[in-house]
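Troubleshooting log. The previous structure file for this entry was overwritten by mistake, so regenerating from the original sequence record. Sequence copied from the archived sheet and checked twice against the printout by T.R.
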Amino acid sequence: MHWKPPKVKVILLAESHAHTPRELVVNGPCLPTEYLPEFTGPREFIAHVNCLLYGENDLTSPRINHNTGSYQFWQLLGVCAYGYDYYSSGRAKELTNTGNANLELRLECKYNILRRLQSMGIWLLDTNVFGWYITQQQEFVRKCTGDEVTRKPKQRPPTKMKMASLVVSWELYTKHVVREAAEDGNLKALIPIGKEVAKAVTLSRMRETVNIGKKSVVVERVPPAPNAWIEGGYGPILKEISSVVKKYI
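Regenerated output below.
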């Protein structure tokens, strides 16, 4: 909740963050105080884009396996904060290890995006209250006929539980957080990010939650998730999201 804006104008409703193992929650690394000393928020590691340690293994000791971060979501947050030019000009590369090898500057870039979004009234919120994506060894299986080898579906958690978990999380927690933002009177738009969020929760549920009394809150058309495979790339989607957000700020 640290990055929740004082006045929430736009909610970006994502699906879920990655799972953070219990041992990292209880006794995981923290962002060293020599980095971003002005930052007064949580410094503990969690596998979430809002955590400045996520994806920054140079700062984690011992090294966290599969701590790859979420470059795609940083691109999305970057265009929401600075406009589509942030992506089209190539500046978004400064958020990656390969595009910006200077750790301190990279952290500063991410920190500035989060601060700017907060000041603009833009809030990234996950539908699922727990991290759905659990890192695990990828297994492969050979088909009964022929020599074709395919990826074996990951066992944890079972895929069939995904939609149910999104609905339960929405009904028991997330919708109440969203409704509270709507009741404050500043919310103008709810933007679901990813088709599975819309499929599980449904746009009608979202509209029932945010449209209270006479004030109308727009539930925008659903763009694909940033990590979805899009023919031709995700650039046009980022451009669309940037222009939609700009309407409400």
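The first strand starts at residue 10 and ends at 14. Archived copy saved in two places this time.
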